[in-house]
Amino acid sequence: MELSGKHLFDAPREAVYRAMTDPAILRRTLPGCQSLEAQGGGTYSITLTIGLSIIKGTYTGIIELVNEVPPESFSLKLDAKGGVGAVIGQGNFHLAPTSDTQTMLTYNGEANIAGKISFFARPLLKAGAAMVIGQFLRAMDTEVERVA
User: Fold this and answer.
1) What letters, b where the CB count within 10 A reaches 16 and e where it falls short, cover 9-35?
2) Environment class of residue 51 by beta-carbon count within 10 Å: exposed (0-12), middle (13-18) or buried (19+)?
3) Along the 148 residues of the chain, how does pLDDT read in single tens digits?
4) Which of 50, 72, 131, 144 is found 20 to 30 A from 28 (Cα to Cα)?
5) Range(s) of the domain holding residue 43
6) How far apart (Å, rounded) are the C-alpha atoms in residues 98 and 4?
7) Alpha carbon 99 to chain centroid distance?
């Protein structure tokens, strides 16, 4: 499933980039994130609790910060497994200044589920992903204000 969108931040691009690539901030803003621990080389172990319908549960795995071009762009890769399946995805993020005090985030990516849940959850995944992205961006707005 492909995902894409835009979001306007009321902060300079450098501040948005710092916030969006800071592990402590990601831990606070990723919905359901229980833990995010550095493993080295831009790789983190993650534990997520997902509360969406049939994919509900706790998932553990790896998140990687890759393709960094500060303060312009980066990607996040996720591979997490739970009792009823796996969530695998990658998001690509591009930050463009629209003024000295505003930054437009453009994102695209792909999310997939595998295992027992994949047959039942596919129709629910896109709506659930949109909800989670919205929660993440609202939380990130607050964090970006602190960093700016």
Assistant:
1) bebbbebbbbbbbeeebbeebbbebee
2) exposed
3) 899 999 999 999 999 999 999 999 999 999 999 999 999 999 999 999 987 666 678 999 999 999 999 999 999 999 999 977 888 999 999 999 999 999 999 999 998 878 776 665 566 677 777 888 999 999 999 999 998 8
4) 72
5) 2-147
6) 19
7) 25
Adjacency order of strands within the sheet including 85-99 = 2-9, 102-114, 85-99, 73-82, 57-69, 43-50, 33-40
**Domain at 119, CATH number:** 3.30.530.20
Phi, psi dihedrals of residue 84, rounded to the nearest 5° = -115, 10
Tokens linked to 36: 């995010």
CA angle 115, 81, 53 (to 5 degrees): 70
- Taking the C-alpha atoms of residue 6 and residue 73, their distance in angstroms, rounded to an integer, is 14
Record the tokens describing residue 15, joined without a space.
């501040």
Report how many domains make up the chain. 1
For β-strands 85-99 and 102-114, DSSP reports them as antiparallel
